## 1
Amino acid sequence: MTDILNELEQRRAAARQGGGAKRIESQHAKGKLTARERLELLLDEDSFEEYDTFVAHRCTDFGMENSRPAGDGVVTGWGTINGRQVYVYSQDFTVLGGSVSATHAAKIVKIMDMAMQNGAPIIGLNDSGGARIQEGVDSLAGYGDVFQRNVMASGVVPQISLIMGPCAGGAVYSPAMTDFIFMVKDSSYMFVTGPDVVKTVTNEQVTAEELGGAATHTRKSSVADGAFENDVEAIAEVRRLVDFLPLNNRQKPPVRPFFDDVNRVEPSLDTLVPDNPNQPYDMKELIHKVADEGDFYEIQADYAGNILTGFIRLEGQTVGVVANQPMVLAGVLDIDSSRKASRFVRFCDAFEIPILTLVDVPGFLPGTAQEYNGVIKHGAKLLFAYGEATVPKVTVITRKSYGGAHLVMGSKQLGGDIMYAWPTSEIAVMGAKGAVEILHRKDLNDPDKIANHTADYENRFANPFVAAERGFVDEVIMPQSTRKRLCRAFAGLRGKQVQMPWKKHDNIPL
Ligand code: HXC
């Protein structure tokens, strides 16, 4: 009996060694942790339940029968993050380059199925040379099985991808279908075709980092939602994110202990909006000042800075924030910001996370570049996302809220529940200058008349009261009491129930 137990321990120890000391050393030399070291950091101490430790591939081509490492290049199972269950897979680059065989894929599929059945998020730590070349189409089929699980799990359990090494070719499409992608700076990259193929086909010369590194995907392509300095920071930030999210689409987000006063007033907010309507101010200040303990988890911080997206808590409960940022492009809506925000709104709605919208928007960005690239369709995405979202939606207008953009940004007409406006709000079909130039075209050569017309228009519309008279705004509030108002508003909406007409699914303008 003791011999059998010893054998199990020996087999386990061998499996934990992955590709062996030399390859682990080389992994460390690249500044990367091993698959198991990463899981140790990601999960609560001693919470990891591993499955399929002894799974080995069945390939007999190219001499593969002589090398059948236990685990087959991926560590899978479940554990907890601050006591809440998550399913995980962590690719082991030290074992055959973390390449994906049929059995490697089957291990991932198994835990994805368990995650969906048991209602817990899936976190994938990606570090792989892609399809196991020796296995050919068997590997391809394995990827297909994972992709299908990504689709089925979407909107059922949160899916988070951490890219911590290579992720190339068709392999990128599994993370691409998950809810969030985070990358590690300088040691991870994602691309459909690598620099060599790019050179052959398009004659462009580009490094792997330039083509698909963390900076590229967080600043240019928006494929990734965040980039971190190293493995440790990336893993710590994923733990922080998980704390904001519900485990599945049947549960509410977690309620965390909070140590902030619900009735906290912030007198400094009364002077946040400058007297000059064209002067910017930092909308992040408002977010930090209303949030419990000032904590804001920003998503896509480096992309489309004219809109801010991320999570805060109010009374310990998660709220998704979408906010125009006057500091960047005057907070205008354009293609990039519409795409960024609509995906975020849809995530929140899928997982029952209430949405707070903070509005200071001069409209949609004009120009041929925007029109030729489809700002109509992309802007419609955001409109559609808000209109279909049935979670509690509370909106605060701080300054400008003009035209179509006013309707897009969490308006009552698009199912907004509570609409507050600061006294500094300007709710109108367009800005005074543009309106006067159309209404009084004949006076354009007379600056005095134009100035009078502009002042008239501003007096009439550059305030929240016309909208408030009609009930389009529920209440004009003091800026300093915004946190208290928001906590009350969301508390009042906790029992919200909405029935939408039956449909197989909608047809959002993609
Ligand atoms: C089998 C692989 C492998 C793979 C790496 N290895 N990738 N084995 N299949 N895809 C093995 C290497 O042979 C090596 O084994 C070990 O992993 C470490 O690899 P190195 O090359 O030494 O590491 P490094 O120098 O860091 O380079 C990493 C790399 C390179 C850039 C990822 O390994 C590489 O280019 N691999 C091939 C990538 C690729 O073409 N994959 C297929 C893409 S097609 P030893 O024994 O020497 O340590 C694809 C389609 C997916 O993925 C389709 C889904 C729909």
## 2
Amino acid sequence: MSDDVKIGIVGAAGRMGQMLVRQVTATAGCRVAGATEGAKSHSLGKDAGAVAGIGDLGVVIIEDPAAMIANVDVVIDFTVPAATAEHARLAAQAEAALIAGTTGLNAEQEEAVRLAARHVAVVRASNFSVGVTLLLALTEQVAGILGPDYDVEILEMHHRHKVDAPSGTAISLGEAAAKGRGVDLAKVRQAVRDGHTGARPQGQIGFATLRGGDVVGDHTVIFAGEGERVELGHKAASRQVFAAGAVRAALWTRGKPSGLYSMKHVLGFAK
Ligand code: NAD
């Protein structure tokens, strides 16, 4: 127990936050040692376990992230972009490792995460599932083999509450395809098509976004050639796959030097 990795969960009342509280509590070798929420949350002052539906853990959800992070070994963050940038600064100051899962960060906010990685171990992923980590590796490989004669289109669907588009995972899949082809995604990315678009330029990487219902996360990478299509896909049926990956990453950071890591490192796909 005293040897347990102490995990702090920011945004502990969110969809992922609650899942993380349950996952950490169910995992040997770690425990929930702190929890925060945003200033407007109705869960402030409540027990993180009670909010997550598993009964009191003796961890009250507080508003002050600095006070919480001072008492933990690892911070897990699935919140909102501005909060993630601030949590990254605080984790670096307190020498706590950081698991950063929030998507939709702008360049400055991503830079705050990268800066934290100079001081502590940071695992950054737009998708913490084992399946999508594998899909990223396969997408890079297939894009390299098929080359620009096969048009790459990335289709994603998420629940109606999702606020950013295309999903962070779809963008990561686009980056993987671009890397496989040896091009820069920013130069070939086509996120929206509407009206008289003209013919599809060769080499473009296209995105299509669907939103609705309670879909946890579906992604398909389509390689469309003359006379055939190759499709690689992943469907998440529960947020538990992301929480399990994030907790695995949190335990993995123990003893790791500072640096920016991905789930490929955690799962041993990358050196
Ligand atoms: P959510 O809206 O249910 O939860 C976000 C929580 O953060 C809310 O409870 C909100 O009150 C809280 N919050 C806001 N500001 C805060 C602050 N300053 N301090 C502490 N908490 C604060 O959203 P969600 O579905 O749980 O998703 C959260 C993020 O995680 C999104 O960006 C989503 O895209 C991303 N996500 C990533 C993965 C992955 O594997 N990387 C998987 C699922 C979701």
